[in-house]
Amino acid sequence: GRSIPDEIVALTGITDAMVRGQRIDDDEVAALAADADIVVAHNAAFDRPFVESRLPFFRDLPWACSVNDVDWSSAGFRSRKLENLALAKGFFYQAHRAIYDCHVGVRLLSDALFDGGPTALADLLVRAHRQSVRLWAEGSPFEKKDDLKARYYRWNSQARVWWCDLPADRHQQELEWL
Questions:
Q1: pTM score, two decimals?
Q2: Neighbour tally for 106: CB within 10 Å
Q3: pLDDT by residue (tens digit) across 8-33?
Q4: Are 137 and 162 in contact (CB under 8 A)?
């Protein structure tokens, strides 16, 4: 119902002409999701609000995040970005196109995190079931933004506050850091 912003066209290569007349079949998506035990997204904190707003039945499904629910850093990966993980595993793809991002996500999750280790999916499933808390870093000074980003905090522009989701057993430790 609106034009694709120029920065998104530059990032994805998707134009208004490409999507004109196209539509997502809500019933088909609902049928696919009906048997899902869990919804996995790479950076679910970004995708989940859009998906749940557009397709409210996703609010009733459990979600996992292949950014936060896989221990990439302990497995030696220096970045959690999908493109960088793919490069570290030795494959290249056309990033920021949904179908390709999904295929590379499945590939990454099906691979062992490290030699002889569990698959990334196995790690994700264990970690996705742990209790987590959302921590809001209210009143954080601007000059601390890089420190917060390094600890995987995200900026909420509407609430004007930094926040992160973390395992409940790390809550007190993170409060002390703040």
A1: 0.74
A2: 13
A3: 999 888 999 999 999 999 999 999 99
A4: yes
* pLDDT score, position 92: 86
Taking a C-beta distance cutoff of 8 angstroms, is the pair 64, 39 a contact?
Answer: yes
**What tens digit of pLDDT does each residue of 143-175 get?**
999 999 988 898 888 889 999 888 899 999 999
Q: Where are the alpha helices (DSSP H) in 55-119?
A: 82-88, 98-110
Strand order in the sheet with 132-137: 132-137, 161-167, 154-156
**What's the residue count for the chain?**
178
The residue written with tokens 């390709």 in the block is: 100
Cα–Cα dist 64/45, whole Å:
10
Q: Which two tokens stand for residue 124?
A: 């994700």
Q: Which of 58, 60, 86 is nearest to 72 (CA)?
A: 86
